[in-house]
What does this fold into?
Amino acid sequence: MALGAQTPPGPGLTLDQALQLAHQHSPALAAAQSQVPQSQAQEVTAALRPNPVLSWDALFLPVFSPSQFSRSYVNNVTEFDASVGYTIERGGKRRARITAARDATSVVKAQVNDAGRGLDFNVAQAFVSALLAQSSLDFAQQNLSSWQDTVKISQARYQAGAISEADLDAIQLQTLDFQTAVSGDKLALEQARDTLRQQIGVTALPANFSLVGELAFQPVGGNLDDMKLLALQHRPDLAAARLAVTAAESQHKLAQADGKRDLTTTAQYSHLSSANNMGFLFNIEIPIFDRNQGEIARTVAATTQAKDLAQQTSDQVLTDVGTAFEAVRQGSDVVGLYTSGYRTQAKQALDIRQYAYQKGASSLLDLLDAERTYRSTELGYRQALAAYMLAVEQLKEAVGTRSLP
It folds into this structure.
């Protein structure tokens, strides 16, 4: 049950190749992927330790009485101090920062995978639409060629006096409908090809690329429960939502760690009145008022929000799968209606009317009616195939994997 399409000149493009090119050249996906190194750079920042602080001073210098400046003056009057200080982070702040940054990167990576999932569907949707436009154009051109044969026969019958001039004019005017259909389908094909190029990346494909593929019915195995289980395992947006819960919990632990006050230690050397001394200083905030209570409370609320969003995403995933699976089932039924005999009956009816008209045993109206019925049936069949293929692509997007049972 397949309808092939003649490919125009140019390099051929299959759906798999289109998807591969899109992942390599899509500007939208590249922009999303750039978030990963940005997040990884935040991991580097989170792992940094505090810098030591070097201090130095010179006091009681005879700047305004330079004549007093002497070795004795420096040794007995002037004071010199030099110190090195370092902040010791308490509460596991650095470890909490690193964990929070890594968890944030995991969320970003899952979101990038979800962007790829959306890109796959958009490319597949554009590819199927282009296949439908190509198939419709091929059919319209076949109809035009066939009708032109009918026009030639009618002209011969008119010259033989078998039909009236009015019937001949009606037949010739009907050619305009076929020519208009061909023109419209050519435009639809170009628009579909342009949409596909945009999704993949305009620079990745030459303008004269051709489509390699066909509108075809490929049954989907598995049941709804199987699809839901696959979705819960593979949907990247659900994975991102679950990882966001972990990231929120990490932020809460970081807020708790930030509530612990750091200890600053200083080692100091002093030269004063010919005496050389060493000193050690320690200082720490007394957390009476500021214990980072606000940020801790915010992260608690953010964690609850992340859990709610993860549950909402899980529910949405199951709903998406159910809707897509039903669309595939209904699309399969519609295609089955066309292949159960309606297409064959429409073609047989047209062949009979054409033969009868050529022999003078059928009217022009009967021929035109059979032609319209056949065209409508064939176009409906092609549209049903395309709708089914799009439903399958929607199911793949809903499940989160292109490998269905």
Q: What stands out?
A: The first strand starts at residue 2 and ends at 4.
